[in-house]
Each structure stands twice: as C-alpha cells, then as structure tokens.
Amino acid sequence: MNFSVLTSQFWPLLINGLAVGLIYVLISLGYTMVYGVLRLINFANSEIFMVGTFATVIVTRDIFKYTSAHEALHGFRLIATLLLILLASMLFSGVTAVLVEIVAYRRLRSKGTNRLASLISAIGTSIMISEAVRILTKSAPVPTPRLLNKFFLFTIGSVKIRIDTFLVIISAALIFFMVDRFVTKTLLGKAIRAVSMSEETSKLMGVNLNRVISATFLIGGLVTGAAAFLYMQVYETTVFNVGFNLGLAAFTAAVLGGIGNIRGAFYGGLTLGLFEQFASAVIGGQWKSVTVFTVLVLVLLFKPNGLFGEAIQQSRV
Amino acid sequence: MRLEVKDLRVQYGKIEAIKGISFVVEQGEIVTLIGANGAGKTTTLKTISGLRPVSSGSITYDGQDISKMAAHERVNLGISQAPEGRGIFPGMTVLENLEIGKYSRKERKSEMAEDLDMVYGLFPRLKERVGQAGGTLSGGEQQMLAIGRALMARPKVLLLDEPSMGLAPMMIQNIFNIITEINKQGVTILLVEQNAQQALQRAHRAYVLETGKVVKEAKASDLLNDPAVRAAYLGTGAEKGHH
Question: Which terminus of chain B, N or C, has fewer Cβ atoms within 10 Å?
Fold first, then answer.
C-alpha cells in the first residue's frame, strides 16, 4: 500500500482516470441502451468494441496505406484522416451491432422465448465473433500505425497533457453529449425512451418496435466503435480478446450508474475509471481487474439499482 | 369508420380468454363493453390494437381484415387506445408524452401545435403541468394525459380501457363529460368499463361480457333499466353492493 501517490500523483491519476473513464462511458452506452429497450445484457458488445479496434487498424493500414515507418501527419490532413478512420470504425461497429441483433436476438424475440435463451444467444455470439477473429489473426496482437505525433499539448497543475489523452477526453465527452441530446430531443430518441419504459404502450403510440430496437443497436454500436477508435489512438495495439476486460469494465460502469440509464452510464463510467486509477496506484497495477470486479460484485449485492438510485432511474434511457 | 369483431377467439397460453365474441362499432357511436373482472374486456381491446394475437375469427376495420396487422400499423389506420392503468411514460414530461402520441402521424410537424391546443382545450390541467414528469401526476391527471395522448394521433376510433379506474367521483364525472364531448366532435368510441352506471348513461349501445362471451347486447338506455343487468352490474338489485 502506498498512499503517498494519492497526493504526489494526484493530477496524472485524475487525468488518466478521466480518459479511461470516458472510454468506459462510451462502451457502457452500448450495454445500457440495449438493456433499456430489451432488458437484455448484450454480451456481444465487447466484440462490437473489438471489431471496431480492428476496423481502425484495417482502415489505417490497408485502405490509407500508412505504415509504422510513416511520419506523423499534421494539420488539416491529420484531422481529416482521423475523422475518416473514426467514421469507418463507428460504421463497422454499428453495422455489426445491427447484424448481431437480427441474427442472434430477433427470431428469439418474435417467438416469445424467455430471456435466458437470449442471454445464452448473446454469450454464444460473443464467443463466435472473438474466436473467428482469434483464428484470423492467429491470436497475435495487431498494431496500428501511429498517425499522431504524441507531443505534450499543455500543462494542468503538475501534469503534462499529451495530445492523445486530450483527444480522448474531448471527443468522448462530446460524443456522450450528442447521444444524450439525441435521446432527449429527437423523435426517434423519445421512441427509444418510450420503449424502455413500456414496450406495449409504445406500440399503442404507433412505434415500430423492431425499427426502434435496430436503431438502438445501431447507436450503441456507433458509440462503441468511436470508443474503439479512441482506445486505439492511445494504446495502438489490439488483439482478439481486447473487448473482454474493457467490456466487463464498461458493463460494471453501466451497472454502477443504474443499467438502462444513459446519464447513469456517464457517472458510472467516470467513477469506475477514476476509482480504478487511484486504487491501482495505491495497491499496485496488477490488482486493476480485481478492483473493477470487486466493484461489480459489491454493486450487484448491495446496490442493484446502481449507486445513483431512484432519482436517476426516473430519467432512465 | 366501421369496426367489426367476428367470432373472435384469443388464447393466453392454454387458457382461452375470449371465446368467440362478435360486435360492431358504427361511425359516431359510443359503444361500451361492460362486465365483471376477468370477463375479457381488456383482452378484447388489446387484441383490437394488435397487442395480443388472434387465435381465430376476424377484426375488420372499414371492410379490411386487420387481425394479422402489426400494432403500429393499426394506429396509422386511425385506431388509438388509452390503455388500462393509463400507460403514462413516467420519466417523460407531459409534453413529451403528448408528442409521442403523434409518432404515427406523417404530418406530425404541421399538426403538432394545433393538436396540443386541442388537448389543452379539453384538459386545461395538462397545460399547467406541461413540464412535469408523467409519473408525478395524480391518477386523474394521468387519465387526462392518456386520453389526450391518444387523441394526438387523430384517431377515427378511440378505445378507452377503464378510464374511471381508481378515480374520485368528481373526477369520474369530469372524465366522462370529456369523453362525451370528444364523441360529439366526431370521434367514435369503444369504451370498456366496470363502472357500468356511468358507461351505460354515456353510451349509445352496450354489450355485456361474461367469461369471454357476449351474453347480452342492447341499447345502453335499455340495459340501464334491465333488472338482471341492474342486479349484476349496477349494484341496485337484490344483492346490493355485492359481487
């Protein structure tokens, strides 16, 4: 135990916690939105993330033909390239999410099968996707060429903020804000919220349930794909099971904030990211996963509605 | 508008909830289905709206068989429902609840302001509560919202499931006055009620349901004076107040 790091390393831990937490926030939106409309934990969401990281690599390396030897991009060219890769990753994850819903869940739903069958289908789909990628990549980690010259942008307190950390924090916060606006302001967003409150009454409003469910998977997938892109800008390497720990951490974040609740995912993700950073600084980085899952088990045992309780529950999804 | 239900059967698992009922709702009418708990009134409305599958028989709307049509398409045809228990979206504001009532309308943008005014005209209370979460309204206000929300879809026929449930006598009068008013404005109404007294006073025609079957059909005013109906549903016969 080393408590002195809490003061000496406060600023770096805070900034890293924010960056990690915001990536959790985006991935947990994939879980929480789907749970909201279907009451189903989409375990395949971790694979939707993984697919997004590979999309980032493929587009950067095979479509834009950048290599590791390539020198970093600058200015407009950098921004345009990153934006295109971001969009491609989002689209790839989004389409995967929609396909997973159609293939793995829709038929079960229309037959009125119980939720356990859907849950098993979710786990099966998750294993199928990750195993397929494992075979295709021969289990090897796959690096993505670096496009960003990772310089220090500015200093806050005692910490120098690197450009990729800055990019993650700003983009993820912006994307979360956009999703939140979308869900509260647009008609489709309202329909998603309506379905999450009552499927039957939504049908009486003329809501086409299958279309709203597809849209929910699409949005969840797009956001998870954005998280995958941001993750790759920081960590630069992916592997077939990259989604496993991150997915479970994001799921924990969703539960922490009250699953089914979009703003809950925001608070849950940030709380978990910060907690994980500070806790592993104190007790050692090798305990990181243990701290995350301890949080999950404790929340499920003592606060199954999430830390933020009924007040947030009311504004669910 | 003409809604016809013919030999309708509906099953819940192995139990048959609706055992071959037939009835008609003609343009401009208020038709009521009365009967005790478990007679199949709510199931009938849910089936007309497409929330329950038909086992056999048919539901025709203006001559078109809609018994296999998806629920959301029936709303587009002009069939709206204020469901049992009101079905207010608790985390949405009054305004959002009303807006989502227009989900099925292609013309929603151009109609929105006009129809919100129409609903606020019928239910001034809703205008005062416009920013409040649906879940925080009183029972009477929720019923107003449920009816107002159903009207936002500009229905040709409005299905009302137990609008008086759990309301104080004053509020029941108020709600039924508005139902009569809505009907006078040209909306056909199919009303399901346990409060048979009110339903029969307001309706043109009535069907009595018992355990999934129609056992009587008559002009509502005739049923009000029918001794058997009075005894069973109006609580003024020999077994007063007893069910």
Answer: C
